[in-house]
Write a structure and sequence with these properties.
Blueprint (H helix, E strand, L loop, with lengths): L8 H18 L9 E9 L2 E11 L3 E9 L8 H16 L3 E7 L4 H6 L3 E8 L4 E9 L2
Parallel strand pairs: 3-4
Antiparallel strand pairs: 1-2, 2-3, 4-6, 5-6
């Protein structure tokens, strides 16, 4: 008999490791690490005023996970510099492209100004928001 249940953290670890085994059997990742993390931090007077986190996931696919600048320091090119540094790290590591997602109330215009193109969007009617998926080819 097959049962469908709500799982726990141990179940999640098992499921993820099984998928990793399948992926490695089907198409082994050339990366040394499954997920290489890059972090950029901007400080003023020892206080963090901005930063970003990016990953190179399987197969050298870059992903911008988080980019934030304190409101008092926005529109001073800090976000652009953070994004540029993260992209440089991803390129140096071997990524050929990068992707990210952002909501309509966050920064789709910012990313488009920085060379990203929208390849998908989801309209969340209940919340009245749009989630954009963007990419940038490094080649």
């Amino acid at each position: 008999m097959i049962n469908y249940e709500i799982g726990n953290d141990f179940d999640a670890i098992f499921i993820e490791s099984e998928l990793e085994l399948f992926n490695n059997h089907s198409k082994r990742s050339p990366q040394d690490e499954e997920y290489k993390k890059f972090i950029i931090v901007v400080k003023k007077n020892q206080q963090i005023i901005g930063g970003g986190i990016a990953y190179s996931s399987l197969y050298y696919i870059g992903y911008i996970d988080t980019l934030w600048v304190d409101e008092k320091f926005r529109n001073q090119s800090i976000g652009t510099k953070i994004l540029s540094l993260l992209e440089s790290k991803l390129r140096e590591y071997g990524c050929e492209l990068c992707h990210l997602d952002t909501f309509n109330f966050q920064a789709p215009v910012f990313y488009k100004k920085n060379g990203y193109e929208i390849f998908g969007e989801l309209h969340h009617k209940k919340q009245n928001i749009t989630e954009y998926f963007l990419k940038k080819d490094f080649c």
